[in-house]
Amino acid sequence: MAVSLLVCLGAASLGCSAADERVQGEEDVQSSGDALSIPAPYLDCPSAVLDAANLVTLYVSPAGNDSNSGTSTASPLASLAGAQSKIVIPMTKDYRIYVRGGTYHGHATRWWKTNANRRIHILAFPGETPIFDGNLSGETKSRRARFFDLDPVTGSPVTNITLSGLSVRNYVHHGIRLGTTKGVPNTCNRILGNQVDNIGDAWGECHDVGSGNVINATGCVGLPNPTNNADIAAGDLSCECAPGTCLCKGYGALDLVSSSKNVLSRNVSRDLINHADTRGLIHGVYAAHASTDNLIQENYIRNCRGTPIKFRDASSNNHVIANYVESSGEGYFLTDSDQSGSYSTNVEVRDNVFTFGYMSQASGLGLAQHASSFSIAPSQSGGTLFQPNQPTQEDVTAIAVGDIDGDGNNETFVALHYPGLDFTKVVYTDGVNKTLSRVAYTSTFFKVTAMAVGNFDGTGPAEVVTAFYNSDSEETQVHRGILTDGSYALVGGGKLLDTSGSSGWKVTALAAGQFSGSVPKLYTAASVAGTTQIHRGNGVTIQSGSSSPGVADGTIVYSSSSWTVPAMTTGKIDSSGTLKLITAFHWIGSGSPKNRIYLGDGSAGSGATGTVIFDDPSWQVRALATGKLDGSATRLISAFDAGGTGKVYLSDASAQALGTSLYSNSTWSINAVAVGNLDGAGTGDEVITAFDHSSATQVHAGDGTTSATNVGEYYRWPLADPLP
Fold first, then answer.
1. Which of 289, 280, 327 is nearest to 311 (CA)?
2. What pLDDT is stored for residue 278 in this prediction?
């Protein structure tokens, strides 16, 4: 396996970007489900690659029927249970089960058909998202215990199942469980790229089958037991009552019971919540009863009330690598327990990012309970970053959008700064799932002031160039990012600038523009020794001594001591059809205030000023971005602070900034905007905007032609508590 170390740069340590260990072929299995090879120490598992010569493909659809053949999109099945019924035992073929997009209400699957020498892949149909919702149609509270239970046959431990690309929500006990009985092993499975939301008793209510009584987490004792135990035993309802017991409580998004040598990677688990009396029982990943040698890698867990990752009863030799956990846990991020007499040992923990506890957990969160179970790499040597304290304020300082891995899908980067903690992290989407589930940068010294995306070297995919600032040392650094084994780090591709002191640079804006030649140039706006300057650079060359052609090749596009530059972008937005450098200026000289937006040609001397497309004494420009919002002509998106009212506008056909109003609100201010094809569909771009209000942050996407928010929410802080 390729292993990279974290990179720490800068006089005060610029910060670390998690480098990590990859599952070979993982990218392929997420897109097609057909290619995956398990790296050491999992090489004794059989191959996960489907046998094309002996392959049966089945289709499941919300519009299907389990009496259909299921062998074509025209004759789909209705459920995974229906698909399992089509598998012939003994298995002599591999099975690929494509699940079409749409919502499947109330499905609960017990899967038992497996074969050590054959493979079963349960996959989202390419380009579609199937949603398994535990709520019955028309209900808002779940009565389903779990979505998927792998129930291995005793004596057949190698189960070899893949689940990928599924969305699971609103189940009480758990989302996906590998194994149902302690001591009955299952091995060599892959849970990849799934999304599991709303697990726990906060999202459900248990009904007594016999009398119809509602049984909640605190009201089980003394109520009559169900009379229809056949339904209960089959997992039909979430309240599994036996004489004297009631289990209406949540346990985890991904549960392992005597389950080993599995790969759990790039899954998203959010809002895993039990009521107060069972709050510690819910987890993002829960490995119990000798679940060993599992790779738990690059998963995202958010808003989990219990310990986000838990081990129990000799679940040893597991590997917790490059996961991102936030706003989770009321005591620890990692725990181990020995209810059956044996603690786990040798659990490797490295390259993870753990930030903030659950909800109002302000401080005192620990990294690991029973720490001797874990082998935790220290953060200063390339290990786990641990930020336990709850922030009181969060600011979005920059947003960037671009296809940085060359897969045709745009990733979205959002820089978050926490002033009270002096902490910064940059998170990003994977280009398919629109959740900010990955981490490109963390630091307790440097905050991000600007980002720009461009293919500056003309080879491979685009790169992110980022400006960082340390207020304590007045140090500015500009770095080129790097893609390593499928993950992006904002530092590591080359340091273009390192300057400090009162005469140093303070970068306020970055932009990429291909005004001539075959590659774009980097434009950097900065305060340099008290003078605002815009420099042109190649975006590639590493600083050497006082020479920094990566940001300043000798071409000064603009210089003034009377104006600052709060925002800058490029685009072909006017009738000339030529690329323009679009620059926002704010007057800091004597006399009345002024705010302007200019179109310039990007050349030396006066390349930032030319045609004025906005001029107002009180509306300060907060952000600029360009894109083909309607799929044809490139337009400008401008965000303003209009005397305390946040406003977003789309430019008109004549390139005037105040064309169509997309947003106006006197409560929320605007911190950053970016434009790109966020949904991967059609030809039109969307706009993504960061909003701030009274120590609250939200990031929304909009179509950019009628609204800045109508596509949906990407992110919010603080989280809303679903419990009364």
1. 289
2. 79
For residue 177, give both structure tokens: 């469980």
Q: Is residue 66 packed enough to be buried (19+ CB in 10 Å), middle (13-18) or exposed (0-12)?
A: middle
Q: Return d(Cα 572, Cα 676) in angstroms, integer.
A: 15
Separation CA 436–CA 85 (nearest Å): 38
Number of domains in the chain: 3
- Domain holding 318: CATH number? 2.160.20
Tens digits of residue pLDDT in 529-542: 889 999 999 999 99
C-alpha 330/C-alpha 276 separation (Å) is 11
247, 272, 297: which is the final residue of a domain?
247
Q: In the chain, which residues have pLDDT < 50?
A: 1-39, 207-246, 380-382
Q: Mind giving me the DSSP string for 25-40?
A: THHHHHHTS----PPT
The residues facing 396 across adjacent strands are 416
Q: Within its chain, how far is the Cα of 616 from the centroid?
A: 38
Of 162, 148, 124, give the one whose Cα is nearest residue 35.
162
Q: Largest Cα–Cα distance of the chain, in whole Å?
A: 86
Q: What is d(CA 47, CA 24) in angstroms, rounded to the nearest whole number?
A: 12
Report the Cα–Cα distance between both ends of the chain, in Å, rounded.
47
pLDDT (0 to 100) of residue 29:
31
Measured CA to CA, the distance from residue 140 to residue 587 in angstroms comes to 54
Q: Which residues contact 244 (CB under 8 A, 6 or more apart)?
A: none
Residues 6 or more apart in contact with residue 585 via CB below 8 angstroms:
563, 564, 565, 594, 595, 596, 597, 598
Locus of tokens 């179109």:
599
In the listed set 195, 223, 247, which residue is the last one of a domain according to the structure?
Answer: 247
Check if the beta carbon of residue 147 is closer than 8 Å to that of residue 177.
Answer: no
Strand ranges across the sheet with 109-111: 109-111, 146-150, 174-178, 252-257, 283-288, 309-312, 332-337, 366-368
- Quote the pLDDT of residue 217: 39
